[in-house]
Amino acid sequence: MLRSAFPLVFQFPHRRKPPPIPPRPPPVRRYASPAAAAVPPLPPASAYVHLPFCRKRCHYCDFPIVALGSSSPRPRGDGDGDDPRISDYVRLLLREVAATRPVSDDGVPFETIFFGGGTPSLVPPKLVAAVLDALRAKFGLSACPEVSIEMDPGTFDAAKLRDLVGVGVNRVSLGVQAFQEGLLRSCGRAHGLREVHEAVGIVTGCDGLQNWSMDLISSLPNQTQDMWEESLRCTIDARPTHVSVYDLQIEQGTKFGQMYTPGAFPLPNETDSANFYKIASKRLSEAGYKHYEISSYCKTGYECKHNVTYWQNRPFYAFGLGSASYINGVRFSRPRRMKDYADWVQKLEDGTWCPESSTSELKDMAMDSVMLSLRTASGLDLHRFSKSFGKNLTLSLCTMFRPFVWSGLVIAMDTERQALQLSEFDVDLENKGDTGSRVAFIRLSDPDGFLLSNELISLAFGIISP
Questions:
Q1: pLDDT tens by residue, 1-13
Q2: Distance of CA 14 to the CA centre of its chain
Q3: What are the strands of the beta sheet with 141-151, ordered from one edge?
Q4: Cα 27 to chain center, whole Å?
């Protein structure tokens, strides 16, 4: 697994590599506490939609998908001879949307929608349009919503992309992963290098589409530094507005999980993987990309607004097989098997399904806040954290981070997010933040702090929940 829009679960940090959390929702966790209830929840303004279809399962993938095999739709996907597995699923998805009760009657319209998968570009544009129409009718869309869709090379042509843009898609996430034929084959991708170049040409030549991202994977089997440098050069030459760089994670139950042991040949060792990360940070920064989140880079103004919803721990709806939503302080994952998901939708329609009660503690919310915030260049807002979880806990975290501020792995910042002198950070600790406090944010340094994010976040967890 490498990305998920967030993934479908969080793991407790334990590796030296930065955790690969990308566009699918975070873990299932349910919150119920008087302190949390005292703060009125924000209405969700984002929705994740899972379209699980792929031509085949990649060797690293452990997401809930449906592999279509040789009967996969043609790249044109004009609707002639639609695969009944796709159309049946979209009908089921539309039933879930219709049966979902909005958080409030005066809820805000959606500002972001993310179609993740799977390979959503296998779905005919008319069915994507049907989902967008249903969301618009049920929840409303803002005047200029960000509508993202994941697309794989070889699954679309220029006409299909034009049709998707025509129905409202305005951001594409292109799953290239590598620019070497051998690496693409070794990780089980359904496309080759020729299809990669064709897809890049189609995306860059599409009128009305300026916002697009390219996905790359590092630490693949037999991947060398020269290969990684080449992939980064090709990515920069393609001039996407956003780049996501994910470090391969070997998951149990996947083909890679059966074939390889993490850190053992032919996988790169820990030092090589860290070097890949540093090279990506250096090359992309030199090319004008802002490293705004551990795995994410963008040109100015092109952050993925949908993913920012996750990093800021804001609520969001989710629809579809295995997807996870976060509403009213409750995280809930839908079933990962199609039959179980269909049964769940039926219960939702019948009114016989209700979320389970929860006794989770406020400390879980604090841990989520720390983990998500420290993944970003914006860092952890100490004033907001103090208001939510208490001054004493905030001071304890700052004290724990002190040696890492001095070593340069953690950066203390003022209200303008400008780095502070080490002495100013120490003065704040001595005054316990009472008088003349200037430290407003802390963040991890790039790239060294990000590389040790798991260790640093684990230490913070130990303070929050000893």
A1: 343 334 333 333 3
A2: 19
A3: 290-293, 296-298, 242-247, 211-218, 171-177, 141-151, 110-116, 46-50, 317-319
A4: 12
pLDDT in tens, 170-217: 999 999 999 999 999 999 999 999 999 999 999 999 999 999 999 999
Task: Tell me how far apart the alpha carbons of residues 184 and 178 are, in angstroms, rounded to a whole number.
Answer: 6
Q: What is the dihedral of CA 179, 180, 182, 183, to 10 degrees?
A: -50
Compute the Cα dihedral for 166, 171, 173, 176 and give only its sign. positive
Asked if 285 and 291 count as a contact pair (C-beta separation under 8 A), the reply is yes
- At residue 100, φ and ψ (nearest 5 deg) are -80, 130
In whole angstroms, what is the distance from residue 43 CA to residue 230 CA? 44
**CB-CB contact of 51 with 92 (8 Å):** no
Of the candidates 63, 77, 76, the one whose C-alpha atom is nearest the C-alpha of residue 23 is 63
Rounded Cα–Cα distance for residues 311 and 177 (Å): 23
- CA–CA separation, 401 and 442 (whole Å): 9
Angle (CA) 373-378-381 rounded to 5° is 60
CA–CA gap between residue 367 and residue 26 (Å, rounded) = 13
Its pTM stands at 0.90
DSSP of 96-123, one letter per residue?
A: HHHHPPPS-TTPPPEEEEEEESS-GGGS
